[in-house]
Amino acid sequence: MERLRPRGSSERSPRGRRALRRARSRVLRVLATLAAVSAISAALVVMFVPSALDVVTSAQETDPETPAPDPSPSATPSPSVTAASTLPPVPLPSAAPPIVQYPTVARLDRAMSRRGMARVPRGSWKGARFSVASFNVLGASHTRGPGRRKGYAGAEARLPAQLDMLAAKNISVAGLQEFQYPQVSQLRNRTGDAWGIWPGTQLGNWLADNSIIWRTDQWTAVETTTVDVPYFGGRMTAMPYVLLQHVESGRRVWFANFHNPANVAGDARGHRARAVQIEAALVKELSADGTPVIVTGDMNDRAEFACPFASASGMYSPNGAEARESGCALPAKMDVDWIFGTRDLEFSGYESDASARDRKLSDHPLITADAYAPGVEDRRDCRAKISRRGVAWYCPTA
Question: Which string of DSSP letters, residue by residue, matches 40-60?
Answer without folding.
Answer: HHHHHHHHHHHHHHHHHHHHH
